[in-house]
User: What shape does this take?
Amino acid sequence: MYRKAAIAVLLLLLSGTSILKGQASGNSTIDVIMSGYSAKLFISEPVTDQQLEQILKCGIKAPSARNSQLWKFTVVKDYALIADIIRNSTPGNIIVIVSGQDTNQSGINVDFDCALATENMYLAAQSLGLGAHIYAGPVGIINSSKKEALGIPEGYRAISVLRIGNIDKSVDATSGASTRKTFQEMVNYK
Assistant: This one.
């Protein structure tokens, strides 16, 4: 009896330690954010159509100024096109190009709204156990010479590129990501 109680206390202490370290909160959204990282090592197992549809629906549900939703998502599954846009591409991965409509409407920041949609999809991919990586570098090339080939509508410009794919499950936020700044370095109270 004493041994079972001691084991139970030990297990409680161990689980409490991981909670104190921010490993788990009991809230699935916070857990995805706290354990996520920008994946770099993808494998060639393809993303399923069901996963992709869920991810895109999460992008559509992002908030936008005045609920204007001035974005379009271009899904690229063709490996040759992907390899032409991002380096170190992997077969089976997909990219989503998030484009924003050009507008002069006061109070609307299309770049910000598209960033929110990108982040929603980024988090959705990670919550499904996939890897995700956001790129801004290829945007200039897309806008200058690849819009027509990618079917980006007239009056829109690429804002971000989201790569989604399966990843090696042995890599995690601790072993796969660069060091983050501390809470104290990033937060200022007044």
User: Anything to note?
Assistant: The chain has a mean pLDDT of 86.
